[in-house]
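Morning - adenosine monophosphate inputs below, output right after.
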Amino acid sequence: MLNIDLHSHSTVSDGLLSPEELVQRAASRGVEALALTDHDDVGGLSRAKRAAIQSGIGVINGVEISVSWCSLTVHIVGLRIDPEYPPLLRGLEIIRSSRAVRAQGIAAELEKSGIRGSLAGASRHAGNPNLIGRAHFARFLVELGIAKDVKSVFEKFLKRGKPGYVEHHWVTLAEAVTWIRNSGGVAVLAHPGRYAISAEQMRRLLSEFKELGGAALEVVTGGHTPEQYRIFARYSRQFELHASVGSDFHGPGESHRDVGQLPELPNGCQPVWELWPDSLAGTSASRHG
Ligand code: AMP
Ligand code: MN
Ligand code: MN
Ligand code: MN
């Protein structure tokens, strides 16, 4: 079976490896097709593609867009997007500048807990000065010795309800899905098991997503348990959504799963890459295109 990983991050967002290092790592672990899906930025794609020519793997153009839906943050992965499509680029730019404003807010909140200089500290950890996220704050707080690892920083400071959390309005589900689709890509609802919502709300989210033209659900992803693979495989069949597979790898030691180290989709799922007319997830075409 095809070793495919459709969700990963580089230093262009909050990953720890450069696009080149990420591609190298994926290749050395036997990945045949990798989607680089940085948060709210497509700046790593040309670098990843260039690196892929040397390592011989396919790189799929991706992005992970931050969305607000009913007072919840959800992530929509776009696959096979056109990284030069102007409305998508403008939309992502708006999100990145709103991230900068939120970062000031996070720093102000952390200051109230006695943590000084976190904006400068987080910025030092950001590989892309235009994209600052909570993971960068988390790494700075670990560096300060305030918590033992990134996960504990989220638990103590950065999750909703914790002292460094700042409510934020991202873009709408309709905007994200529309930008992805109009740029020629397919929209995937990322890591559905992570959203703290009732089954009824999940059904509402899935039907709205489907209605807007969403194409797939991430069934197998780093943060899901085997039980969740089964639950979301069922949802994907019920809502006639294709199924995606992605590690959501951020870096060695920070992620549930390494690149390409994922089980196969449960039986009965329609793999998202079957939507693509060309073989091997269309990567050979996109690699040279
Ligand atoms: P942001 O988009 O800036 O709000 O940050 C979201 C990112 O923070 C996710 O993509 C993960 O990389 C990271 N993250 C969120 N929750 C956790 C957690 N509980 N433990 C570790 N990392 C997390
Ligand atoms: Mn992330
Ligand atoms: Mn995500
Ligand atoms: Mn991700």
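Note: The pocket of manganese (II) ion (ligand 3) is lined by residues 64, 75, 190-191 (CB under 6 Å).

O.
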